Amino acid sequence: MEWKKVALMAGAAAGSAAVLWYLLKEEKSAGRSSSSASDAKSIKKQGVEEITKEEVRQILQDIIKSQDQMKGYIKELTQELLSKSLSFDDTYQKVRKVQPQDPLEQYGLSMMEFDRLLDKHQHDPDVREAIAKIMGAPSPSSVASEKVQSISVRKVIDVHNFMLQELEKLVDDYQKAPGREGYDMKTVTIAAQAIVGSQIEAKFGITSE
User: Fold this and answer.
1) C-alpha distances in Å from residue 22, one per residue of 109, 143, 152
2) Which residue range is the domain that position 98 belongs to?
3) Is residue 58 a part of any domain in this protein?
4) Is-contact 10 138, C-beta < 8 A?
5) 209 in a domain, yes or no?
6) 158 lies in a domain?
7) Which element (helix H / strand E) includes 34?
8) What are 122-175's pLDDT values in tens digits?
9) Integer Cα distance of 207 and 200 in angstroms
10) Structure pTM?
11) Are 45 and 134 in contact (CB under 8 A)?
């Protein structure tokens, strides 16, 4: 049953980003391999129905890579939020400065088109495994840490309730923020994840890791 507790805690820590895999970004860097850029351009020239299973696997791997990069950004920002108070707008601007490119934008795909591709290849084991990894689904056979094992179900519920309260406050802050009409909702969600994550860590000593 411990893996279920791991799943609940992961959901609490990242609940402010319910569509994580969609929000993940591909880092803009000069170090990006030419083959990756070439693959992206190649896919853009194709119709959605012509994209192969192998190309879908590559897109998913790029999203996983982006997820790892974004986790690093959020972890650093969470620690900064623990050490000093930042307004919602300040947090948003910090995220915006480091926010990488969306992998789907890189490949010229819309969310609807990508959903169609995933539906088409949903029975492929590699595709299913990649999606599970992106969504952060723990394996039933994974070994939970001692810290996770010590967390009671009552505490998990308390964390979720606290998270909901903090998200409601964030919505209020967002609505009062100057120039919010120009905010990018993906950036807003990432900023919210960092803010709520820092508050959960400060109150309960629990991180997404």
Assistant:
1) 12, 28, 31
2) 2-204
3) yes
4) yes
5) no
6) yes
7) helix 34-44
8) 999 999 999 998 887 665 555 555 566 677 888 888 988 898 888 888 888 778
9) 7
10) 0.65
11) no
Contact 52, 43 (CB under 8 A): no
CB 142 within 8 A of CB 3: yes
DSSP per-residue string spanning 97-158: HH--B-HHHHTT--HHHHHHHHHHTTT-HHHHHHHHHHHTPPPTTSPPPHHHHT--HHHHHH
Q: How far from 137 is each of 113, 129, 160, 162, CA to CA, in Å?
A: 24, 10, 18, 22
Residue 178 lies in a domain: yes
Cα 189 from Cα 187, distance rounded (Å):
5
Q: How far is CA 149 from CA 6, 132, 134, 144, 146, in A?
A: 9, 22, 24, 6, 5
Q: How many domains does the chain have?
A: 1
Contact 191, 90 (CB under 8 A): no
